Amino acid sequence: MTNEPPRPTRIAHVGIAVHALGEILPFYRDILGLPDVPLDDADGARIAGLHAGDSLIELLEAKSADTPIGKFVAKRGSGIHHICFAVHDLDATLARCRDAGVRLIDTTPRLGAEGKRIAFLHPASTAGVLIELTEY
Ligand code: CO
User: What fold characterizes domain 12-135?
Assistant: First the structure.
């Protein structure tokens, strides 16, 4: 490890569950003017990434109904699915969450899209927002 000062937590991406990427991508890309960036599929979803400054918008389309995004869209329709924060030290942040009694979906980090370690927090502990934590 280096002696870099801690970097401030920032929004890495906002995940938006959609029925069909092709229907909504032109709005974000062509009308709002967000440059698109290729992203790998993850958790059974096709992902269209769009640069929004230092953050990304991730449009998430389920590959099948039995995936997390498929279930979300079936139950609630399209909409904001999660917010991902990049933190300086994922393990330390997850430990602080655990110590504070925050309900964890992933008790230890796992590999997410872009090959980065991630962990999800349960919305019951975060004012109803599904939160993903990742590293810088
Ligand atoms: Co995400």
Answer: 2,3-Dihydroxybiphenyl 1,2-Dioxygenase; domain 1 (3.10.180)
